[in-house]
C-alpha cells in the first residue's frame, strides 16, 4: 500500500482504512498525517583565507521554505560546534576568530520551516593570513667573507609568514649572468679564479613579495703545500730541504719546530724562492720535529707533513766499551753473564759478541740490550777445563769500531763438599756441610746413606740449603753419610764421611687423657679418644673392649701416618648392635721404639632399639587429605617423621614431606584413592613404618 507523497505535496493527509471479512463484516479506521520533506542541502561550499578570517560561500538550497543556514566547525573527532546562523537569503559568512597556520573544517546546514535540516559536504583549509611583507634573508657565508674553497656551497634561508615560492642566487661569470634557482646553491670558484665576487640572493613569497640582497666576497685560495721535506744531520746542524709550492704568489716559507704537545713554534722565515735551511743550534742526540709553511700574498698558508730526526753530529771517535761480568781469566760454569755497554757521540751503535770454546767454531750474536748470557749448562765433560774466549765489539754508524777480548776457564763440575757433620736429635739426625761452591755451579746435592742394618738410601736435596734432617732413621742403627754436589757436566767427589747413631728409646709414652672415662653411659655409637705424648715419636694406639656380653674382645687400632711426639688418637666405635650392660675399655699407646703404656675405664652401654611404630590416621575432604599420627615411644632420641604415599600393600614409597610435627594436609584429586604410611626416624638413623592408611 504505497502513496506517492511527492505528487500530493507537503501539508495535511487524511487516510481511511477499511477491512471486510468473508462474511461481510466491515471495520474502518481513520488516520491523520503531516507531510514534510527534508530540504536539499546547500552545495559548492568553499573556504578562502582573507585578512578578516576564513570566508565561506555556498550555493543555497533549491528547496522552498528554507528559513536559515547554520554554520558549524568540525573537530578531528568528527564532533561539530555551531559557529553561526544566518538568514536563508545569505550565502556567505566570515569566521573571524581564527589563528594563522591552524587547520579548520566547516559544514553548512539548511533548515526548513518545518525544522528539518540538510548538511552540505565539508570543506577544510589551513588558514594563512595574506602577507604584504617581503621575506627576510639569511646567507652563509655572510657578506664580506673570504672564500678559500675551490667549490663553495651557500646555505640560504628565507623567513616569511607565508610560503616561500622562489629562492635564487645569481652572479656574473665571463660577462654572463648565472642564476641558481634550487639547492645546492654552489659555485665552482676554481673556474672563476681569485678576486672579488658579487652575488645577489633573492627570495619571493606566494603573494609576490620579493627581497634581493647583494653580498661581496673575496675569492682567495690556499696555496699548495711544499713537498718532500727532509732532515739530515750535518756538522753545522740539522739541514732541511723541500720542494717548493706549485702555487703562484708564494712570498715566503716559515720553518717551525713542533713540540711534544703538537704546538708549532716559529723558528725562521725565508724567501719564496728558497728551499733549504739549516738549524745551527741543534743539540747532539736531541729529537726534533719540523714543518715548513708556505705563505701566499693573500696571507693564506699551507704546511708540509712533519719530519722527525734525532740530531747526531757526525762522529770520528770510536765507542768506549764498558764490560762487567766474570773477572777476565777466572773460571765460569753453568752460564757466563755480562753487562756490555758502549758509549759514543753517535747514539746508533751496533754491539756484537763473538765467543769460542777451545778450538771450536765461533758463535756471533747481536746484542740488543746491555745484558748478554752465554749458556754453558748443556756442555759435556769433554768441554770441562777448556778456554772460553769472548770478543766484545761495538761499531757506530760512522764506522768507528772498538773491541775487547776476555778469556775464561770452563768449570762445570763443582768442587767437593767439605766439613760434613751429623748430629743425633729427637727429631732425627741433623746433617750440615760447607757448600762446594757459593754460587750456581751446583745444581743440587745428593745425600748418600748406609746403615749398619744393611740399608742404603739416596736423597736429592736443593742446592740452596746446606742443612738436612733425616727423619727416616731407626734408633740403635749406625748410619754413615756422604754428600755429592751435582753440576752441569758431572758431579763432584764425595765429601768426608759423617757417622751417627740414635740410641734406643726405653721410655714408655705418657697417656695424658682419654674418653670415655669410668661410669660414662653410651648409646648407639661414639668416638673413643686417647691423648698421648712421648720423648721420641708416637707410632700407634690400640683400644681393646671386653665384656661378658661379648663372645670375643673388640680390638680397634690406629697408626700414625707421620710419627709425632704428641697427638690425640680418635677411633670410632659402633654400639648399635651391642647388648646393654657393663663394658671394659683398655687404652694402649705405642712409640716407634715399641714402648707402650695403657689406661683402663669401665662404661655402661645402653641397648639400642628402633623407634616405636607410629599410629597413622587420615580424613578426606574435598580435594584434600588430612593425615595425623601419634607416637608413644621416647622423644629423647627422636629426630623427625617422614610421610610417604604408597600402594595398598605399603610398597612403592613416594616421598611427600619430612617434619617434626604430627600432622599434614595435602591436595588430592576428587574421587582419588590414596594410601599413606608415616615413618619414625631417630637421631641414629633408625626408622619404623606405621601401618598403611587409605582414604
SSE layout and pairing:
Blueprint: H1 5-8, E1 11-20, E2 26-35, E3 43-49, E4 54-59, E5 66-74, E6 80-87, E7 92-95, E8 103-112, E9 117-119, E10 123-126, E11 136-140, E12 146-147, E13 151-159, E14 164-173, E15 176-180, E16 185-188, H2 189-192, E17 195-205, E18 210-219, E19 227-233, E20 238-243, E21 250-258, E22 264-271, E23 276-279, E24 287-296, E25 301-303, E26 307-310, E27 320-324, E28 331-332, E29 335-343, E30 349-357, E31 363-367, E32 371-375, E33 387-396, E34 401-410, E35 418-425, E36 428-434, E37 444-451, E38 456-462, E39 467-470, E40 478-486, E41 498-501, E42 510-515, E43 521-523, E44 525-546, E45 554-574, E46 581-591, E47 596-606, E48 615-621, E49 624-630, E50 638-646, E51 654-659, E52 663-667, E53 675-682, E54 687-689, E55 693-694
Parallel strand pairs: 12-18, 28-34, 43-47
Antiparallel strand pairs: 1-2, 3-4, 4-7, 5-6, 5-8, 8-9, 8-10, 11-13, 13-16, 14-15, 14-17, 17-18, 19-20, 20-23, 21-22, 21-24, 24-25, 24-26, 27-29, 29-32, 30-31, 30-33, 33-34, 35-36, 36-39, 37-38, 37-40, 40-41, 42-44, 44-45, 44-46, 46-47, 48-49, 49-52, 50-51, 50-53, 53-54, 53-55
Question: How would you describe this protein?
Answer:
The chain is built from 2 helices and 55 strands. By secondary structure, the chain is an all-beta fold. Strands 42, 43, 44, 45, 46 and 47 form a 6-stranded mixed sheet that branches. Strands 5, 6, 8, 9 and 10 form a 5-stranded antiparallel sheet that branches. The longest helix is centred in the N-terminal third of the chain and has 4 residues, at 5-8. The model has no long low-confidence stretch (mean pLDDT 88).
